[in-house]
């Protein structure tokens, strides 16, 4: 699959196409397609489409005009039009792997994952003579299989990819991440995860997501130094996808929190750096607020915890947000007396965790504040859920959280790598001028 090309590469391609124009027949489908490619390379989609349509007037069966029309519409975000023209291209040439890949990419975007997997697998079969292309298609198959919760089939697809191309970062990264997460209960799963992630960072040391997941492996096995991995990830964030620096700092902050004993001051500094850049980074306010709560700095804790669970930002499924409600209820009951706020936060906690033994403690506090404080039914004492919130009053620690694998990326003349925080989406090739 083509990787993202710098502007100078696109310019060179455009110059090469302009040379081709001199030897192409005036008004031919090939000439119009070449002109369209020059416009497409500059992101001028409407002009490119007009040239490709002129090419089809000259030769209605010209494959590259049909294919590149699909590509132009795809890059313009007009998925239905793109799909229609890719189908038209298949009527002329039904075994072209790039067309199948791009139809798979559209299916993936539309969450038709079984269709996507089928298209990618056929593209891989047809690309057998070009192992690096076939490997990328197998990575795409794996990403689609993961969306279908077919973990074993996904692993086999990634294994096929790295067998065809041992230098496939996506193959090794996705396979390692799968063994670290969904397939982590099998024999030697963590060793396999670590081996593939180690290979991934050796292939592309400038990809921070590889270092982040390798740090998770080193933390679990006790072999290797996670802090060195986080430092490598930080160095690799230069030029990485926007927001990746904060993601690395967040993962390192959680690691500092999980350490025994916790490295509280180091965690605090990472969280402060995140919030200085992104004040509403999910869960960061809550974790830092819990830190100040533990120090007895309640005014600062309130500021951060309230920001964490402000209207429109409160995530009822996030344990840090739930713990923020609990801590605020305690603060407003015991330290900054405000019965209404204490009851409101205690109620929010209760609605999400009605079986928590902390409910009894909140009830006792609420009853001290008001005789009709809070209608929380009696519940038998039960153990807290295993996965506690980082920074919670109970001192529970979250397990390491892996960065997801790469999703498929479309096959384009300037194909983009998918965002590092999710399995890459399928890839697509843009066709250069063909005669």
Explain what this protein looks like in three dimensions.
The chain has 435 residues and is mostly helical. The chain has a domain at 242-401: Alpha Horseshoe (Serine Threonine Protein Phosphatase 5, Tetratricopeptide repeat). It is built from 20 helices and no strands. The chain has helices spanning 7-21, 29-41, 45-58, 63-75, 79-92, 97-109, 113-126, 131-147, 151-164, 169-180, 189-203, 208-221, 226-236, 244-258, 264-277, 284-294, 298-308, 319-334, 339-352, 358-369. It is elongated, with a radius of gyration of 27 Å. It starts with 6 loop residues before the first helix and ends in a 66-residue tail after the last helix. The relative contact order is 0.10.
Give a short synopsis of this structure:
With 435 residues, this protein is an all-alpha fold.
The run of helices and strands is HHHHHHHHHHHHHHHHHHHH
Give the C-alpha Rg: 27 Å
- Overall strand count: 0
Unreliable stretches covering 5 or more consecutive residues = 1-19, 377-398, 413-435
CATH topology descriptor of the domain at 242-401: Serine Threonine Protein Phosphatase 5, Tetratricopeptide repeat
Instruction: Classify the oligomer.
Output: single chain
Write down the overall geometry: elongated
Beginning-to-end CA distance, first to last residue: 22 Å
Please, what is the CATH homologous superfamily of the domain at 242-401? Tetratricopeptide repeat domain
CATH class of the domain at 242-401: Mainly Alpha
């Amino acid at each position: 699959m083509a990787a993202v090309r710098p502007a100078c590469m696109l310019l060179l391609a455009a110059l090469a196409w302009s040379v081709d124009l001199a030897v192409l027949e005036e008004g031919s489908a090939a000439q119009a397609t070449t002109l369209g490619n020059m416009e497409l390379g500059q992101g001028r989609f409407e002009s490119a489409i007009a040239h490709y349509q002129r090419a089809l007037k000259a030769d209605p069966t010209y494959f590259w005009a049909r294919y590149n029309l699909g590509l132009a519409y795809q890059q313009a975000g007009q998925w239905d039009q793109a799909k229609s023209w890719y189908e038209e291209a298949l009527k002329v040439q039904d075994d072209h792997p790039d067309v199948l890949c791009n139809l798979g990419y559209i299916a993936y975007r539309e969450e038709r994952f079984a269709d996507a997997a089928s298209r990618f697998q056929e593209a891989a079969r047809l690309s057998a003579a070009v192992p690096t292309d076939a490997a990328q298609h197998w990575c795409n198959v794996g990403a689609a299989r993961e969306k279908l919760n077919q973990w074993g089939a996904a692993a086999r697809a990634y294994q096929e990819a790295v067998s065809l191309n041992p230098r496939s970062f996506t193959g090794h990264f996705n396979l390692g991440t799968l063994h670290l997460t969904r397939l982590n209960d099998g024999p030697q799963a963590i060793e396999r995860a670590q081996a593939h992630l180690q290979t991934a960072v050796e292939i592309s040391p400038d990809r921070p997501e590889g270092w982040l997941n390798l740090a998770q492996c080193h933390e679990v096995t006790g072999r290797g130094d996670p802090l060195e991995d986080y430092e490598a990830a930080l160095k690799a964030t230069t030029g990485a996808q926007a927001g990746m620096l904060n993601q690395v700092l967040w993962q390192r902050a959680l690691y500092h929190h999980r350490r025994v004993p916790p490295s509280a001051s180091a965690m605090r500094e990472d969280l402060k750096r995140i919030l200085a850049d992104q004040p509403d980074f999910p869960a960061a306010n809550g974790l830092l607020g819990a830190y100040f709560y533990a120090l007895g700095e309640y005014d600062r804790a309130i500021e951060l915890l309230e920001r964490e669970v402000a209207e429109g930002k409160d995530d009822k499924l996030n344990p840090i947000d739930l713990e923020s409600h609990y801590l605020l209820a305690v603060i407003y009951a015991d330290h900054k007396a405000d019965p209404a706020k204490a009851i409101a936060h205690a109620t929010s906690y209760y609605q999400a965790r009605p079986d928590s033994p902390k409910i009894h403690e909140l009830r006792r506090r609420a009853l001290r504040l008001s005789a009709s404080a809070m209608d929380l039914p009696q519940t038998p004492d039960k153990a807290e859920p295993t996965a506690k919130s980082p920074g919670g009053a109970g001192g529970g620690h979250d397990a390491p959280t892996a960065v997801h694998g790469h999703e498929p990326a479309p096959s384009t003349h300037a194909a983009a790598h998918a965002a590092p925080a999710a399995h890459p989406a399928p890839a697509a090739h843009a066709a250069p001028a063909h005669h």
